[in-house]
């Protein structure tokens, strides 16, 4: 499957080292203003080579609207967005053209399709997420104008917790300059120098969700959240609400009084339906699998060998993941709004 969404369907296309990546949006409103510069602002938050702690692949991530918009307004027709790949170094991956990188999808893609694009992982590359971010930027303003605010911050990088007071709240978002946190800087540098990488935990808080969003049993709000977030490269788990491990029933119950709830242990969702409280979501990213350390693997002929990965990779993918998380959550929210006819 290369598409997601119900009322508004998004289809992404392209590979890490192909000519273009992009997306087609079908089902979005007509007569809505859209500007490339606004899409670009979102893309700039996830694009590579933004610091010494991201991949050094220098992509401009310049978006172009091809169809579905006339005089900066949507026509109601499908909207085609394309982003050109500029800084490809496919030769970096020649040595793993027949080897499977442990931790990557090389092995599973080959078993499924009997063929694979080894250049940067092809379709399985996190490069694909730029198309998701570009797509959701088109309807983020709509969601915000309905009083829904999505904010995220990195809670943990590897074993180091980031204090919440290190973050600044700017224009409805939390930002932090990782470079100026010396302990984080030294930690990431150390891991890079020993050919290692780091995990990340990201917390997202969504305010303004109307109670009643989501469907019972098979189309729950939280099951959709899990489905969409797990689809992001390197995401291994999510939690909604507070960590309920070793908690008893007296602690996790959210008591109710006439004007609302006394706590929010369940993260704004009960029975798969929003209860009007903020949604609280934790997303866990695994450490980047591509490092330059030699490790044991097999090749397409099932022979055991030692292989290393060249190329340019993030030492911690979580540093650029916030826009991707928020793009998927925005897509869930707008589709549920349209399905439930809320906020109209």
UniProtKB/TrEMBL annotation:
SUPFAM superfamilies linked: Chorismate synthase, AroC
Keyword terms, alphabetized: Amino-acid biosynthesis, Aromatic amino acid biosynthesis, FAD, Flavoprotein, FMN, Lyase, NADP
Keyword Hydrolase: no
EC numbers on record: 4.2.3.5
Cofactor(s) the protein requires to work: FMNH2
Lipoprotein keyword on record: no
Gene3D superfamilies: Chorismate synthase AroC
Residues that, per the record, bind FMN: 123-125, 233-234, 271, 286-290, 312
Pathway info: Metabolic intermediate biosynthesis; chorismate biosynthesis; chorismate from D-erythrose 4-phosphate and phosphoenolpyruvate: step 7/7
Matches recorded under Pfam families: Chorismate_synt
Classification via InterPro entries: Chorismate_synth, Chorismate_synth_AroC_sf, Chorismate_synthase_CS
Superkingdom classification of source: Bacteria
PROSITE patterns: CHORISMATE_SYNTHASE_3
Family indicated by similarity: Belongs to the chorismate synthase family.
Protein's job: This reaction introduces a second double bond into the aromatic ring system.
Subunit structure and binding partners: Homotetramer.
NCBIfam families to which the protein is assigned, alphabetical: aroC, PRK05382.1
Protein name according to UniProt: Chorismate synthase
Species for this entry: Candidatus Carsonella ruddii CS isolate Thao2000
Designated gene of the protein: aroC
């Amino acid at each position: 499957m290369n598409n997601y969404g119900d009322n508004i369907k998004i289809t992404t296309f392209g590979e890490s080292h192909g000519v273009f990546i992009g997306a087609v949006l079908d089902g979005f409103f007509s007569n809505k203003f859209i500007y490339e510069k606004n899409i670009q602002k979102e893309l700039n938050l996830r694009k590579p080579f933004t610091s010494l702690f991201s991949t050094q692949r220098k992509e401009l991530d310049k978006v172009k609207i091809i169809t579905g918009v006339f005089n900066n307004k949507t026509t109601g027709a499908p909207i085609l967005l394309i982003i050109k790949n500029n800084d490809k170094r496919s030769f970096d991956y020649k040595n793993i053209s027949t080897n499977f990188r442990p931790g990557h999808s090389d092995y599973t893609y080959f078993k499924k399709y009997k063929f694979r694009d080894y250049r940067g992982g092809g379709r399985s590359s996190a490069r694909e997420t730029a198309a998701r971010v570009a797509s959701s930027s088109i309807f983020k303003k709509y969601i915000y104008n309905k009083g829904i605010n999505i904010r995220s911050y990195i809670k943990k990088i590897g074993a180091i917790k980031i204090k919440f007071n290190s973050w600044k709240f700017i224009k409805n978002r939390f930002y932090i300059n990782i470079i100026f946190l010396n302990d984080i800087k030294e930690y990431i540098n150390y891991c890079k120098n020993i050919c290692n990488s780091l995990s990340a935990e990201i917390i997202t808080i969504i305010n303004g969700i109307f109670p009643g969003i989501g469907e019972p049993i098979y189309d729950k709000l939280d099951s959709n959240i899990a489905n969409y977030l797990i689809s992001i490269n390197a995401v291994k788990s999510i939690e909604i609400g507070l960590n309920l491990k070793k908690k008893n029933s007296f602690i996790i119950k959210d008591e109710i009084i006439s004007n609302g709830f006394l706590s929010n242990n369940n993260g704004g969702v009960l029975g798969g339906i929003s209860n009007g409280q903020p949604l609280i979501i934790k997303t866990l990213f695994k450490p980047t699998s591509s490092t330059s350390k030699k490790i044991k693997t097999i090749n397409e002929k099932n022979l055991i060998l030692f292989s290393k990965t060249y190329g340019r990779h993030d030492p911690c993918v979580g540093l650029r993941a916030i826009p991707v998380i928020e793009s998927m959550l925005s897509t869930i929210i707008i589709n549920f709004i349209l399905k439930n006819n809320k906020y109209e």
